[in-house]
Structure formats: structure tokens, C-alpha cells
């Protein structure tokens, strides 16, 4: 199996949340000589050097300033670190029938029934006390163990379960995490005299504190997500498929990372933007609908001696490749797709089109990428929604609008998009990395 696909599996397994994905990005970037910048400090950038900075620990931008960026502009690849899922609510523990449940809410647009009857764990960010209230300690946590499950109601008590798919988001997505063993019938009387009710209550902060080796009293707040513990793995008799959640959009994050770290410094500035919060509309300080990237571009060029007029020149000469996964044709539901634009797994990257510009691709931007792929024997495909169906959008139109840069939308084909277990093609990942590398490097 190709090395790039194997590395993708590891990347997904190590990235249960956007926080962890950015932590992995930082680790790999530092290994190849990228320097982390502090946005709150003065910079002294140098052409040809490698830099990155993060925001909210869930978004990151890495770049290599070009030696002739005034005349050559920027080449940018954008993707996003977040995926649809279930977020744990504040004060999440609910006790019902002597059992403890985790109260959750839906993040983005997951296929909810795929979260049932799967072993789940918890991961995210923990905020700890410190002497300075404005400089609190922040730690990532991944409990890794099978801790919770969302059980289906038995078919005998829900006879229409296979006829209707609607899920009660208020109570149907609470995850069973443990039970109050002290309340078992045989021990109720004996235990009652020995333990106060508070001692027998399950406490999530105590579980986290034990993992972090800190006091539960030091935990100020948490931002936690459930995730399936089943590892990403190859599938198929020839390992032709990748079975894993969060391929949308960690596959594109990993592709952009590999392309950038293999890039040599050139005349133009090479940049990879890893936004957060695409799945909920990008309207956050670390999302594509923010000044995060635009402000950074200005800061880079002004630090290197450019003037305001130069900024507009640079924008006109720049190019954005927006990378988000694409819909592969489903062999059981092929009628749901356009007659001709029907991508297949393992047949190469997909250029995405929409007449109403939910994807930013136009003939001019597509021509550049098609020419690159034709010259380098990279297979490619096209996707457009069936004319009577509305599809999703991507970060492409939002980022391109914010930056004013010509752009194209593309991604690798994927089945079961937004399921907790998606299916991608293992060969496609290698081809996408090859394309992105050419995009950043070719004259």
C-alpha cells in the first residue's frame, strides 16, 4: 500500500478533534524546520524561511515567503480541520434509571444514526486554573478508551425503526457512560449508611483530572467531543479503500500538509490555510469567513517591506486552491447523481462545479489545474450536483470572497460523507498530494 495513505490513517487516528489535528500539524511542521510565530509579538520575517501560527488551537496557517512575492503573488491551499460530530454540553451528566448519560448537541451535519451502537471516547480541550486569569493553562485530552455508547432502542419496542429515520436530538443522542452500581437492589441498604449521595455520583471532571494528573478543582472549563474509537483502516481485498471517520476533511488537511512540507522556497509565497468551523458556516475568528488569512497576508508582505499598493498587486497575481472532499457516485443510489458528472473512488481528484458558485471553479481556474494534471499524468474527474438537487458548499466561496483571490474547488471522492465511518479511495490520496505539490512548486 502507498506510504501516503498509511500516513493518512495515522493522522486521522491521532486527530479525534480539530484541536488534535492542529497539534499534529504543529508537530510535523516543526520536524521539518517551520518556526512557530507568536501573533502578539513583533515579527522579523525572512524570504525563503518557513513559518506557521495558530488560532484557538484549532486553525493554523503555514507559509514560506517567496523571494519575488511582489511580482509572483501567493499560491494558497485551504482546507478545514473540523468534522461533523457530537459535542458534549456544559454540565453534561444526566442520571436516569440509576444510569449516567452524557448530554450532547449536534455539531454540523452528521449522519446521526451512524453514531448508534459504537464504542465512543472523549477528546478535546481542558482549561485549568493559574495565577493569571488571562493566561490560563490549556491542555488537550484524548481519553482513548471505550467510555460511552449511544444504544439503540430494541426493535421490539420501536417497530418502525427501519421505516423512519428521524432521531430525537434532545434525548436520542445522550451517551450512556456508566451506572450507579451502589444503587443495586442487593446493596441498597448497606450502602445507604456508608456513602452520602454525593460520593456515589459520577463526576466527569474527576475522570478528566485522573487522566491529566491534576485536581478536579483546578478544572475551570472543558470543550469535549465524542468520537468513535474504531481506528481508521484499509478495506477491500486489495486495500483499495480507506474506512474512517473525519476523512471530510482531514484527508485534504493531510494532503495540503504533505505538499507544503515538501515544497522548496520559490519566487512566490507558498501557503496552506487550515481553517476551523467550516461545518457550522465558518462564521468564527478561526473560520474562513473571518479576516484571519487576509490580515496575515497583509502582515507578511508589510513585514517584508511591501506597501499598501503592493497588496492589491499581489492579490491579483495569487491563486487559491480550496480543498474539500467530493461526493463519489454510490452504486446503490446512482440515480441521485448527475448523468455525466459522477466521480468514482480511486479515479483521481475531483474538480467541483456549481452554476450558482457554491463552488468557486470557473473555466479559467479549472484550466490551470487541468493543464497541470494533464502534463503530469494525474487522473481527474468532475462533479456537479444533479440539477434538481441542492448540494453543500465549501470554504472556497467564503475564503475567495474574503481574500478577493481567484479560486478553484476540488477534493477527493468520498462515500458516506458525514457518516461516523466514511469510505474513501486509498489511491486518490497519493494523487491529490502530487497535484498539490505541483500547484505549490511548478512555474
TrEMBL record:
Any one GO cellular component localisation term in the record: cytoplasm
Source organism of the structure: Halanaerobium saccharolyticum
One Pfam family from the record: Peptidase_M18
Required co-factors: Zn(2+)
InterPro entries: Peptidase_M18, Peptidase_M18_dom2
Family according to the record: Belongs to the peptidase M18 family.
EC number: 3.4.11.-
Classification lineage: Bacteria, Bacillati, Bacillota, Clostridia, Halanaerobiales
UniProt keyword annotations, A-Z: Aminopeptidase, Hydrolase, Metal-binding, Metalloprotease, Protease, Zinc
Protein name in UniProt: M18 family aminopeptidase
Superkingdom: Bacteria
One GO process term, biological-process aspect: proteolysis
EC primary class: hydrolase
An annotated Gene Ontology molecular function: zinc ion binding
Keyword Phosphoprotein in record: no
